Every structure is written in C-alpha cells, then in structure tokens.
C-alpha cells in the first residue's frame, strides 16, 4: 500500500507539472484589444469619410453652374472658375473633379480639377464609392452623376471627390501593442512592423469594406504540455491507484465478508433538498401555492381574457380585450396578483405601488398604466399591450442565429430606453413634488420592442420613490445582481445613476451580443481595480465606434460619480457618437 502511495504521489506530480506547463506565443489580450480597436476606428473613419463625400458630391452635382458647365469645354469651365461661377474650397488632400463624357464616343474630358494639375480619376464615369490603398494612405472616392442642363441627350457629367486617410496612426498603435502583419486591399499591401519567423496569418476584414483586411502575423505557439512526461505521470498514478486499492482490499474490516469492500451511501438532508430555483431579485412575501391560470374567455371586470402571456413571482400576465360599439376592440395586458399573496398586506402594497408609480409617468417609451385596483377577489393592474417581444428574448434568439443587432438600431433602442427612464426620473406626484423615482431593475427583459419599432420600459415593481406605501427592509436587496450597480448590491441608498449603470450593462449586451454578469458578490475576489471586468466593446465587435468603449465602460464605473450624471446625459453622449459616425 505504501509503494502504491509513492507511485500515486510521483505520477500525480509529473502529470501536474505537464498539465500546468503553459504554451507561449499566440495573440496577447492587449494585442487582441489593439487589433479590434484599430479595425473599429479605421472602419468608422472610412464610413464617416464616405458619408461626408457622398453629401459633398451630391451638393456639388445639384448646383446650377455645375450643370451648365457640363455642356461646355475645358477652357470655358476654367473661365467660369476664374469668374467665380465655379468656386469651391477643398480640404487638405482633397481632390475635386468635374468630368464630361460624350455618349457617342465614350470619350471623357476633365473640365476642371482642384487642385490644378491633379490627375484624372480612373473611376470618373462610374458612379459609386471606391476605396484604394497607396502606401500608408487609404484614398476614398465618391463619383456622382450630374444632370446636364444643356445637351443632355449628348453628354453625361460626373462630379468626383477624393480624400485620403492616413494609416500611420493605426499602424503605430498596432506596433506599440506588439502586433505585426500588414493591411491588404486588392493588390496593395502596407506592412506593419516585421513579422516573427513561423508566424501564422490571421485576417480581419473591415465590416463595411470586406475586401480591406488587417492581416495579423500571430506568433507560433511554443511549449505547452510535454506529452512524454504527461503519459508517464498518468501511467505511474494509475499503477499507484491499483496498488492502493489492493492494499485497502486486504485491510477490509471483519464486519463484512473477508476481502469485501464496504460502500457508504450518502444521503441529502431534507433541509437542503430544495425543489426549484428562486428567481434572482424576486421578493419573497411568504405563502405557498400555485395560482390556477385564468381560462380563455373568462371576464375580469369588463375585459375578456384571450390567453396568458407569462407568469412571475407575484402575478400572471394575460392578454385581454374590451369590446365596444360598432365592432370596436381594444387589447390590454392585465397583471393578476397570485391569490395566495393577496392575503399579505405588504405584498398587496408592493404590487399596487408598481402601478401607482408607473401611472405618474406619461411617456411613449414607458408602458402606460390604464387602471388598477381590486376586481372581485383579484388585485389587478391593467396596462398598455405591446405587440412584440422583450429585448432579452430578441438577444437570445440573435445569439442562437449568430446574428447581431445592427449598430444603428441598437443605438436607437438605447436612446429610447434613456428617454423613458429620464421621464421616470423626472416624474412628479399629484401635487407637483418630485418623486425621485429610480427603476432599480433595468435589464433587457424589462424593455419591450414592438413589431412597429416602438421601445418601452416596463416593470416598475421594485422602483424606489421618496414616498410610497411599502418601504424596503433594512439590508434587503432587490433587483438583478448581474446588472446591478455596486452601491445597490450592498444595500446603500441609490439615485438615478444606479439606472445609468444598468443601462450601460444593457448597452454592452445589445451592442456586442455578449452577456453581462457584474454581480459584485460573485466578482468580489477580483477587486474593484479595472471595474467593470469586461473587455472593451470594440474588442468584441470591431465595427463599433471606438468612442463607445469609454462611454459604456464609464457608465458602469464602480464609483457613481464617474458615471454620466443621468440618463439624459448618457443619451446625449450616444447621440454625439451617432452624429460623428453618420
């Protein structure tokens, strides 16, 4: 038995050494982030430049003097420039051309160019957008057709605008991060540093320009698990286990049959054998029992139940309709409190407070409360019905289909969430005094997106206001821990910046497609340094504007003073980035 133990210890040590040997090489985390940031920033610059050139070319093509000049010749066009009829200011590096094409011969004539002597573009008679690379510069060209004012049946005209983008800043950042490789665009290649021997190419295309690629030279992996040592260690440990087992067999106690091995059955105590998993953030008001669903066709007051939409810890939600004259029909969502909770006064106050608070908010991005109270034996809240899906389900289905929410759509949804929450934060009581309301459970499941494109915040069930019927018990934490601001997680007093934090987490999910779990209790071992413990959004989705990294991670800052002051400020920053990138 002692010999077996020696084999186990020796073999285990050898196996442990082999398994824990780490391979070196590959892409570092810093390199991955730099690569994603470079792709995202360059893609954003190209899209912004293309949008600006499209607008500039369309504007120039619509000018009457330009439409008249198409029917002239080069000398006349230059005279028009000298007289000031054709006068344009160009940006540094920009090239502007006016080109005439004779339909019969397809001959192209450059009527004028700025600056003087600029070479004719090879794309002059082909409307569209073009991206080319020359050395460490990317040249973006926009060609727009001009409607000739005269001789329109003989001639075609084109405005050509080109601007360069310098690749050196992106190259410098990549080299500083230890990345080498090249930029590829067609036959043009621009080197980035000197690749190491044996490196493997990894290509990352620009989302808006797939033929433009950043090709990174990934260092070959070196080292790793030494297989001979691993095999020898595993074999030695296995032999040792066999020897130990044989030794234990010989030492079996007399109470069993000679040579028998005894087994002990482990039982789970009744106290710990729970059935079911509590919903995160759910409030337990006591009582047991499962409510029987309300059948279709049942009348709740003047509303006829159509079907059940869902069920939660406090209530079931049903689709219902009210009928009127001349075939009028209105659909609503009715939240019906579970009967076993209706006997708990605190639970009833909590349930009705949701409706009382939400009813004070009148805004297109907040689900409207239409009625509340007690009908027969049921406590109900009648709400606006949103024909669509919650954002959480949208994101889950998107991940399953490997599709991401388009960036412009995602940013639009986030702005509407901010609008609705800001309206809630500014809500007042009947006498005009501020409610100082904080939602406290902002998450994708509490954002509804309708089939018509509407966005509405819902579920103010644990919202906190300065004055309400129920009060949070000392030390009681409500909400969803994975999306919850640190100060809320530890039971401190919260303000609107707690909702800003949660909107930042939702923004991260919808823009990157990745899930977020920032539960302070689960991440306590990591400390608050580098909080939030998430990679920059552009590292996960390179086409995201680089500026979103700072905004989203700042919204989820550990210290509330470092976040945007409120949802209106957060939305203003989002809008500025949207405007900057077109």
SSE inventory with pairings:
Blueprint (H helix, E strand, L loop, with lengths): L1 H19 L2 E2 L4 H33 L2 H6 L4 H10 L11 E8 L5 E7 L13 E7 L2 E10 L8 E12 L1 H9 L4 E5 L2 E5 L7 E7 L2 E10 L3 E2 L3 H24 L48 E2 L2 E9 L3 E9 L5 E9 L7 H14 L10 E7 L2 E7 L3 E3 H10 L6 H19 L21 E4 L4 E3 L28 H4 L6 H17 L24 H4 L6 H9 L11 H14 L2
Antiparallel strand pairs: 1-11, 2-3, 2-6, 4-5, 5-6, 7-8, 7-10, 9-10, 12-13, 13-14, 14-15, 15-17, 16-17, 18-19, 19-20
Structure commentary:
With 582 residues, the chain is an alpha+beta fold. A hairpin with a 5-residue loop joins strand 2 (95-102) and strand 3 (108-114). 33% of the residues lie in helices and 22% in strands. A six-stranded antiparallel β-sheet has the order 12-13-14-15-17-16, covered by helices on one side. Strands 3-2-6-5-4 form a five-stranded antiparallel β-sheet. Strands 8-7-10-9 form a four-stranded antiparallel β-sheet. Mean pLDDT is 78; it is low at 17-25, 242-246, 248-290 and 466-476. The radius of gyration is 34 Å and the shape is globular.
> What gyration radius follows from the Cα positions, in whole Å?
34 Å
Sheet with the most strands, sense and barrel status: 6 strands, antiparallel
Basic shape: globular
Number of helix segments? 14
């Amino acid at each position: 038995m002692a010999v077996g133990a020696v084999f186990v210890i020796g073999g285990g040590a050898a196996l442990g050494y082999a398994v824990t040997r780490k391979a070196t090489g590959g892409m570092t985390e810093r390199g991955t982030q730099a690569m994603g940031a470079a792709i995202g920033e360059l893609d954003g610059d190209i899209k912004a430049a293309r949008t600006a050139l499209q607008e500039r070319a369309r504007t120039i093509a619509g000018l009457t003097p330009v439409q008249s000049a198409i029917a002239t010749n080069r000398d006349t066009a230059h005279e028009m420039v000298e007289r000031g009829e054709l006068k344009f200011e160009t940006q540094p590096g920009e090239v502007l051309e006016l080109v005439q094409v004779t339909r019969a011969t397809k001959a192209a004539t450059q009527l004028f160019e700025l600056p003087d002597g600029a070479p004719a573009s090879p794309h002059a008679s082909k409307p569209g957008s073009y991206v080319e690379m020359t050395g460490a510069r990317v040249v973006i060209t926009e060609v727009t057709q001009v409607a000739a004012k005269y001789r329109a049946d003989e001639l075609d005209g084109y405005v050509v605008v080109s601007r360069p983008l310098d690749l050196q800043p992106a190259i410098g950042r990549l080299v500083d991060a230890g990345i080498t490789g090249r930029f590829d665009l067609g036959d043009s290649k621009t080197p980035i540093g000197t690749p190491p021997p044996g490196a493997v190419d990894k290509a990352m295309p620009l989302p808006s320009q797939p033929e433009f690629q950043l090709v990174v030279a990934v260092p070959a992996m070196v080292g790793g698990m030494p297989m001979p040592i691993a095999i020898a260690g595993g074999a030695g440990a296995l032999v040792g286990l066999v020897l130990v087992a044989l030794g234990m067999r010989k030492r079996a106690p007399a109470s069993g049959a000679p040579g028998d091995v005894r087994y002990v059955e482990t039982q789970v105590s009744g106290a710990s054998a729970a059935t079911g998993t509590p919903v995160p953030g759910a409030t337990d008001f006591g009582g047991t029992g499962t409510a029987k669903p309300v059948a279709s066709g049942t009348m709740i007051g003047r509303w006829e139940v159509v079907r059940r939409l869902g069920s939660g810890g406090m209530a079931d939600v049903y689709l219902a309709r009210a009928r009127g004259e001349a075939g009028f029909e209105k659909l609503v969502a009715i939240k019906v409190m579970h009967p076993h909770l209706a006997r708990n006064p605190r639970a009833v106050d909590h349930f009705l407070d949701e409706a009382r608070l939400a009813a004070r908010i009148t805004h297109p991005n907040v689900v409207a409360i239409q009625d509340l109270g007690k009908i027969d034996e049921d406590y109900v809240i009648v709400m606006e019905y949103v024909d669509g899906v919650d954002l959480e389900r949208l994101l889950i289905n998107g991940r399953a289909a490997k599709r991401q929410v388009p960036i412009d759509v995602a940013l639009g949804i986030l702005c509407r969430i901010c609008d609705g929450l800001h309206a809630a934060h500014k809500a007042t009581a009947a006498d005009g005094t501020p409610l100082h309301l904080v939602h406290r459970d902002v998450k994708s499941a509490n954002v509804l997106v309708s089939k018509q494109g509407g966005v509405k915040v819902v579920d103010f069930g644990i919202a906190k206001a300065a004055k309400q019927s129920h009060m949070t018990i000392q030390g009681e934490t409500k909400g969803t821990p994975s999306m919850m601001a640190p100060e809320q997680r530890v039971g401190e007093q919260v303000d609107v910046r707690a909702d800003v934090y949660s909107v930042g987490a939702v923004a991260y999910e919808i823009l990157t497609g990745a899930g977020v779990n920032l539960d302070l209790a689960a991440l306590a071992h990591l400390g608050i340094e580098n909080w939030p413990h998430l990679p920059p959004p552009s590292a996960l989705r390179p086409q995201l504007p680089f500026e979103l990294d700072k905004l989203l991670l700042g919204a989820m800052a550990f210290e509330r003073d470092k976040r945007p002051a409120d949802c209106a400020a957060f939305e203003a920053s989002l809008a500025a980035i949207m405007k900057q990138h077109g």
